[in-house]
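ok so I'm stuck.
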Amino acid sequence: MKKLFTKDRLMAKKILFVLLIILLIQKSSMALENKLVVKVENEIITTIDIENEYKYLLALNPNFKNIEKKRIMEFSKNSIIREKIKKIELLKNLKEINIPDEYLDTILKSIYSKLNINNMVDFKKYLKENSIDFKFVKNKIEIETIWNELIYKKFSSKISINREDLKKEILKNNFSKSYFFSEILFEISKLKDLNKKFTEIEKTINMEGFESAALTHSISDTSSSGGKLGWVKENTMNKNIKDKISNLKINEFTKPITVPGGFLILKLDEVKKTKNDQNVELELKKLMKIKRNEQLNQFSTMYFNKVKKNIQINEI
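replied:
not stuck anymore, here's the structure
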């Protein structure tokens, strides 16, 4: 009986030892997975950070599931680098980065509404189901929001809008045309490389679709949503853009258009006609807001590129 008891104790010890070894191996494996990938000044980016960004992108863009994971992971890394650069610039003048809860709730609502989610409770549940920490989302929104505020403070005085020209456009027509565009904004170091770069982008579009090409090649913030730019009213476009899109059919895209901050490719997704508001001043206010945001986005791109040049980025 005593021998049997001793054997049982020895067996139990062996099992416990094996379990401890397994736990140590798993712990070691997890530690190895969370490697340092990029250092942006003193900000670090790890494999876990990139994986979290990947999950966030998929949750907001279900269509990305059709795109090769390796490509989305590469985009996720670049997306975090852009975010770190913005954070570094913001913290030069701020002690911390946060926004009022009511403002945060408004932005979150605009995000989850696009996913056909009705309220914050369901949105948090959706995030949890996709293994996304709500604080992670909150942090991303705060950085982007305060960055936009910085851009407005720096460049709002440089916004140029011809109020009278817009008013004439409104009075001239009872209906206005709107276009739903997707975009790819890209840069090149030398002008002679433009055709080569466009050929590369065009190849990706034809083989994998515009969304995938935007994810791979675009430096615009819209790249995280597959390049979806949204509805743009014809009377807010400059002549150069109007000329380039005038003969486009649905699902066709332009050749590169020179814009502040780089080169732009526009894809036409949809067209609609809407009746102009009878209240001319109200319609004018809407159009001026669109034009203002368009110019601020251009200033944002140019300022970001300027900041990036002075930031040390080291890939490990």
